[in-house]
Amino acid sequence: MTRRALITGVVALTALGAGSARVVDPFTLGVASGDPTPDGVVLWTRLAPYPLAENGLGGMPSRVVEVSWELARDERFRHVVRRGRQWARPESGFSVHVEVGGLEPGREYFYRFATGGHLSRTGRTRTTPAPGTMTTPLTMAFASCAQYEHGYFTAYRRLAEDEPDLVLHLGDYQYEYRKGVHVAPNGNVREVDGPETVTLADYRHRYAQYKSDADLQAAHAAAPWAVVWDDHDVADNWAGSHYSKPEIPQPDFPARRAAAAQAYYENMPIRSKPRGFDLRLYRRVGWGGLTTFHMLDTRQYRDDQPCGDGIKPCPERLEPTRTMLGAEQERWLLDGFRTSSARWDVLGQQVFFSQYDHTPGPVQETNLDAWDGYAADRDRVVAGFSSVRNAVVLTGDVHAAWGAEVKERWDDPASRTAGTEIAGTSITSGGDGSEVYPETPEWFAENPHIKYFNNRRGYVRTRFSPDEVRVDFRGLDHVSRPGAPVSTKASFVIEDRVPGLNPV
Questions:
Q1: Are 35 and 270 in contact (CB under 8 A)?
Q2: pLDDT of 227-269, one tens digit each?
Q3: 276 Cβ partners below 8 Å, 6+ apart?
Q4: Residue among 232, 106, 96 nearest 166 (CA)
Q5: What's this model's pTM, rounded to 2 decimal places?
Q6: Could you tell me which residues come within 8 angstroms of residue 316 by beta carbon, excluding any fewer than 6 positions away?
Q7: DSSP state of 432
Q8: Which residues contact 361 (CB under 8 A, 6 or more apart)?
Q9: What secondary structure does DSSP assign to 253-267, as a single string?
Q10: Shortest CA distance to 207 belongs to which of 239, 178, 174, 182?
Q11: Hey, what domains does the chain have and what are their CATH numbers?
C-alpha cells in the first residue's frame, strides 16, 4: 500500500461513525467473543480499513469513532436481546470490548457490530451453563503456535467447521520476528510485513496482518475463546523481567513488554486491561459443574531459565525455590483446587508439563524453558491434584501432538498417575511436519509415561461429559498449501477417576 493510498483512506474515513462514509470497510479484522460466564460474554472487534498501515492504527482517523453492537438469539437478528454503543478510541488501537451481562445461562447467541454504514460479519457465541449443571456436555477445541510465515491457517478453518462450544488458545498467537528470520524446515510460504515487533505500533501492525486472515477470522466467529499468551506474543523465551537474547540488544525490555501487553489486550476478547507491563491473564472459566478451566500464565511471573536456558543437564532446575507461576498465582491455583467441586479440573497453560528426557542413557537433558526447568513448582502443582476429582493438563508451545501420564515421581514408571497431559500441535509452526520423528522409539523408551506423539500441524478436539473426556488429535498433512483436509490422527478417552489415556 502506497503512502498516497493510506492518506486517501484516512480522508475517506474522517466522517466514519456519522453514517456518511461508505467507501472502505472498517471490519477487516473480523469479530470475536471470549471469557464466557453463565450470564455474560465479552464481544470484540477492531476497526482497521487499511490493516497494514505502518503506524498500527489501520488507516483510522485520529479521533474516537462510535460503534454500535447487538446480540440476538437467532442468526437473522429477529430476536435481539441486547444492543448498545461503544467508542473505538485511538489510544486503544480502535478496538472495541463489550462486556455483555444479564444473559441466560447455557444458551447460544449471535452478535454483530456496525459503524459508518458498514456491518460486520456475524459471530456465534454462548454463555456457560448455570453453576452446578452437569447435564450439558462440552465440545472444546484448543490450539497454539501460529507462525504466519510457516504455513496457511487452514487448521483454524477446520477447527471452526467442528463447531466447538469453546476454544482455548494457549499462546504464540503471533510471532515477533521480522521477515525471513524464523524459517520452517520446508521453507517459508508467506511473508510478514514490518520489522520485528518492539513498539506498540509494531505489535498492532503484526496483529492486524494475522487477523486479516480469513481462516483465523472463521475460528473466532465460530465460538467464544479463552486465551493466554506465551513467549512469541512478546519475545522468544522471555521470563518475567528477563529478556532472553543477550546477544541481541534490548535496552528497554519493560517498555517492550508493556507494548506487547497493550496490543494483546487490544486484539483479544478479554476483560483484563494492562497496567504498564503487567496484564493479569490467569483466571478461571467454568462450565457448570462439569469443568473448570484454570487458565495459567507461565511467562510473566517465572524465574529466569536455569543454566542459561536450552536443552542440557542442569542440577539447578531442581532447586526448591524456583518458580514458574510466582507465589501469588501458585497460591491462587492451589486454593482453586481445594475449593473445586468440578468433575474435571483442567489447566490451560503453555509449556510442556511432564518430564521429558531428550537423551537416552543415565544423563538427563531436559528443556529448561518448560516445566522441567522449574521441577519443584511442578511437584507442588502435582501434589495439588490430590484435591480434585480429575486433573487434566492442556499444553501448547511444543509444535507437535503429545499425550502423557502425569506421574507423582517422574523417574519411577510404577508410581501413581496423578493426572493426564494433552499437548496440542501447532497451527503452522514448524511447517508441514511428518507423522513421526526418526528418534521416536528412543524417546518413548526414555520416557515411558509419554503414550502418544505425532508431528503434523492441527489442533485438539475434546468432548467433556460426566463419565469421560474424549480426546481427538486432529491433523493436516500439509500447511504449505491452503485448503488441506483434516483427519483424526488418534483418539483417546480419559475415564472419570482413572487418569491416563485409553486408546479408542
A1: yes
A2: 999 999 999 999 999 998 876 778 899 999 999 999 999 999 9
A3: 254, 258, 261
A4: 106
A5: 0.95
A6: 306, 307, 322
A7: T
A8: none
A9: HHHHHHHHHHHHHHH
A10: 174
A11: 3-126 (2.60.40.380), 138-503 (3.60.21.70)
